[in-house]
Amino acid sequence: MVGDETDVGLYDSTVDPERQRDLLTDGEIPVAVYGLGKMGLPLAGVYAETTGAVTGVDIDPDVVDRINGGENHVVGEPGLDELVAEQVDAGRLEATTEGPEAAANARIHVIIVPTLLDDDDDPNLATVESVVDDIAAGLAPGDLVIAESTLPPTSCRDVIRPHLEQESGLEDDEFGLAFCPERTSSGRALEDIRGAYPKVVGGIDDESTRAASVVYDELSSNEVHPVSDATTAEAVKVFEGVYRDVNIGLANELGRLADELGISVREAIGTANDLPMCQLHDPGPGVGGHCIPFYPHFLLSQAEEPMDLTRTARRLNDEMPAVTVDRLERELEATGDDLADASVVVLGITYRAGVEETRASPAIGVIDALRDAGADVAGVDPLVDPADYGARAVDVDDLADESFDAAIVVTPHAEFEAIPWADLEPMVVVDGRDAIDLSGTPHRRYTLGGTADGRPPRGDGGADAIAADERSLTADGGTDERPTETDGTLENPGADDV
């Protein structure tokens, strides 16, 4: 057991618990945070302001250099510029590319790197295991390892613990290991880390749970919620994401009824949600980010249960970009135009407004489907270059100088509020988010699922108005086949962004 304060660790320590807290917040228990990305850097900053002794580890030398210069490299996180500058200037936060060296100097090790999927949609733990190798190189008795990276349930028990034992030469009762899922959303990371939600803590043994609870009771102003073990804590995080994916899949399926019923499904959903037991999400053009589209696979890849509901929701949500393009094609046909000959501008490439992240963004699927159909595709996004995703880049200020047959609103960045729609040449506009006002303009608008104020996907009335519109289009040489499906997603609060 660790019996004095000359070599302080939290795990299996005989130091008085209150004294452990004092040592933690006085900088006497050094912390290493592995991964300084969108969620890792905010977490390292909060650890630094709480403990006063943090080394952040990242494989990117440019990221490390910028942080050591007091500069925040993460875009769109309020307060993070100031926090990084203050903590670096005070000597409470530094960064390095040398993981083993950081591990040798730390007593608490926090893992917050991505868990991605391979080509078969199976979780790939290579990045996590690489970090575990670094930690093992410096792991000492009494150290506490905390995984905040979202992991397939059983990863701490069956992957990380044996890996640490094998590589460090320590027995599993000589160090602590806990899973403490990050519950953060891009754009509000500091607020979330500091205590917007209860902090879930689950260890591979009771002492690991206790030690991790001490840490997060200091880090967070909210309550700490210990659970039975690390696998339960891992499941909590994955279940949160699966719930969102299945709920969105249901909203998308209901959204497909909007044309058939001649109603706005968004209005129906919003009204149904007046009841506290109903919490339907909104339909839209797809599910993006590196959380919701990935987490179902953490279960599907290893479960013996068929999990038909989860699989169906994932399939429905994966199809949404293609469904969105299909709706555009039908609207173009109704005006006598062919998608294969059309020029289309995609508004919004990132998966979420104001967030510089494109992983699994619906816009990428929309662009691919448009290109496969033969359309000429342009893109507008204030945060990323559309050319990197297969679309000709157009600046939002130059839209009035362009001529397009159609537009698809995928991600409604705030900058799009300045688009002078009345000055643009008439086009078909598919609004995937019910985000724009085209009243008083010559454009033909189609809103996925209808509008929140009650307008069906096309037209201002109910089924009779849509039918009358279609009869008019047919008489004008268009098609008598009306759109039948809409789909999409909701933004992703409370999901990890590592």
UniProtKB/TrEMBL annotation:
Q: Which SUPFAM superfamilies match?
A: 6-phosphogluconate dehydrogenase C-terminal domain-like (SSF48179), NAD(P)-binding Rossmann-fold domains (SSF51735), UDP-glucose/GDP-mannose dehydrogenase C-terminal domain (SSF52413)
Task: Give a GO biological-process term.
Answer: polysaccharide biosynthetic process
Instruction: List every stretch annotated Disordered.
Output: 440-498
**Which GO molecular function annotation, any one, does this entry have?**
UDP-N-acetyl-D-mannosamine dehydrogenase activity
Q: Gene3D superfamilies this protein is in?
A: NAD(P)-binding Rossmann-like Domain
**Segments forming domain UDP-glucose/GDP-mannose dehydrogenase C-terminal:** 345-438
Q: Would the keyword Cytoplasm be found if you checked this record's keyword annotation?
A: no
User: Belongs to which family?
Assistant: Belongs to the UDP-glucose/GDP-mannose dehydrogenase family.
Q: What is this protein called?
A: UDP-N-acetyl-D-mannosamine dehydrogenase
